[in-house]
Specification:
Elements lengths: L1 E5 L11 H15 L3 E7 L6 H4 L3 E10 L2 E12 L2 E7 L1 H4 L10 H19 L5 E5 L5 H10 L9 E6 L7 E2 L3 H6 L12 E2 L2 E3 H8 L2 E4 L2 H6 L3 H4 L3 H6 L4 E3 L29 H11 L10 E5 L8 H11 L5 E5 L4 H13 L4 E4 L4 H10 L2 E4 L9 H7 L3 E5 L2 H6 L13 E3 L4 H15 L2 H12 L6 H16 L1
Parallel strand pairs: 1-2, 1-6, 2-5, 6-7, 7-11, 11-12, 13-14, 13-16, 14-15, 16-17, 17-18
Antiparallel strand pairs: 3-4, 4-5, 8-10, 9-10
Helix pairs in contact: 1-19, 4-5, 5-7, 11-14, 12-17
Length: 477
């Protein structure tokens, strides 16, 4: 079975969010299951030179964007057993960032068309093209459109995965003819029309053969207006092809026994070494060194979706407890200012690091005791899985993938791997935090919980099997 996996970013080459982690680990897991999966990405100028130096040019062709014929160069590299193709056009991708440009609609229309035509130029006809989020969503429409006049596409099936419904790729309807080059027959309420705009995400939802989301809970949530981002109606119409498959993490990449970013490596048999990482973290962030003091951490984009309004509401009250709080990330200035303010007010308790560092994030996962994720919405979440892997206990709101991966600990039954709260309510979150802090005082019980957390299974083994079964079902239709 031949799979072409299309994404706008992938580790280790380029990353802005969780999609890159998925695109870097799921294909590798599928490859291990004897599936011929290849990944296609844009050739961004920001990709490190060490990878560019390994690339080989394997093809060149053009795509038509209405009256313009635009160049596509194809470069290939093999990484950890998976073949990656990088599509080159410096006019579109020789830039300082990935997204947020005035011509994003045109850039990713080019990318989608180039993906569809790629197989014809590299002698690789995919059975399935698997696309992700709005950046490659038009592939699903183009495959259907091209199949009308080209038999090569008639038996190519498509899968579209929604990683975050909030970001949809919405553009002026002039795109339809001027750039996309498709008939106005697609521009209607059951097609790609969205309040008189063109909606790329909607194209993926409507025209894919199979629609997936990144957790079972999120697949149910997006059918309702609160989570549906005004697309819940069209999702309900398409729910017969909708499946929730939980993301995983790469257990080799995130491995506390092997991680070179942390001070002391450890596993289930050497959990006590975890405290050495806390001491190192306290020293690095100029906090009082005390390995027995509970440390709460957040590694997050500082935006409202991450539940930071709840934190703001009870932060003063929480900091009356004997604890330390560490935050790493960037985002909205109001939240950045909030954490700076509390660091100034409580210098012995709060360390606010308003930037992002992969190395420091690993040190936080390894060194802290509690990992806070009070999200308003969370399609899947990767951070809670990493925290579990490193024996740092997640405290999460029961939403999306957080609900599917973190289960409230019952000390009597010795069941569960973290702490949860249900409603988007600051004091309900605070109550859960105080429950966790109370359990922390019983170090024997806390050690039991750490073991439960580290035994959680969140790699790609089961999820990749579900994707492979989904692919196989599609090829039979």
């Amino acid at each position: 079975m031949r799979i072409l996996y299309a994404a706008s970013e992938s580790v280790p080459f380029i990353k802005t969010g969780g999609l890159a982690d998925v695109a870097g680990s799921l294909p590798k897991s599928l490859k291990n299951n004897r599936t011929d999966v290849r990944v296609v990405l844009p050739l961004y100028s920001m990709i490190p030179q060490k990878y560019k130096d390994q690339m080989e040019k394997v093809a060149a062709y053009t795509v038509d964007l209405n009256w313009r014929s635009q160049y596509v160069g194809v470069y290939s590299i093999e990484h950890e057993g998976v073949t990656y193709y990088f599509l080159d056009n410096e006019f579109y991708f020789k830039r300082d960032g990935l997204y947020g440009y005035f011509d994003d609609g045109e850039r990713f229309t080019w990318f989608s068309k180039a993906i569809c035509l790629l197989g014809k130029h590299i002698d690789f006809k995919p059975d399935i093209i698997h696309t992700n989020d709005w950046h490659s969503a038009l592939v699903n429409l183009y495959v259907k459109d091209f199949a009308i006049g080209d038999d090569w596409f008639k038996d190519v099936k498509t899968v579209f995965t929604i990683h975050n419904l909030k970001y949809q790729g919405i553009f002026d309807p002039v795109m339809l003819g001027e750039v996309m080059g498709v008939s106005e027959d697609y521009f209607h309420e059951h097609g790609i029309e969205f309040y008189n705009k063109v909606n790329f995400m909607k194209a993926g939802i409507v025209y894919s053969d199979s629609l997936t989301t990144v957790s079972q809970s999120y697949s149910e949530e997006i059918k309702h207006p609160y989570f549906g981002e005004q697309l819940d109606g069209i999702i309900r119409l398409q729910e017969n092809k909708l499946t929730g498959i939980l993301n995983g993490i790469d257990y080799e990449e995130y491995h506390p026994k092997k991680d070179g970013n942390i001070v002391a490596n450890y596993d289930l048999r050497s959990i006590k070494k975890k405290r050495d990482n806390k001491v190192a973290l306290q020293k690095m962030y100029n906090l009082p060194v005390d390995e027995n003091k509970p440390m709460i951490a957040m590694v997050s984009r500082l935006v409202s979706m991450k539940g930071l309004d709840l934190v703001a509401h009870i932060f003063d009250e929480l900091l009356q407890e004997d604890l330390q709080f560490v935050v790493l990330g960037t985002g909205d200035s109001s939240y950045q200012d909030m954490f700076h303010y509390f660091q100034h007010k409580y210098p012995d308790k709060v360390a606010a690091r308003i930037y992002f560092s992969e190395k420091e994030s690993r040190q936080i996962y390894a060194g802290s005791d509690l990992f806070l994720m009070p999200s308003l919405a969370e399609p899947c979440g990767i951070s809670q899985m990493i925290a579990l892997r490193y024996g740092t206990i997640p405290l999460v709101r029961e939403v999306g993938g957080l609900k599917d991966t973190v289960h409230h600990y019952d000390p009597e039954k010795k069941e569960g791997n973290g702490f949860t709260f249900t409603n988007f309510n600051a004091h309900e979150m605070l109550f859960a935090l105080k429950e966790a802090l109370a359990l922390y005082k019983d170090q024997e019980e806390w050690m039991q919980l750490i073991k439960q957390a580290m035994k959680s299974k969140n790699d790609w083994q089961e999820s990749s099997k579900k994707y492979r079964a989904l692919y196989q079902d599609l090829t039979k239709k």
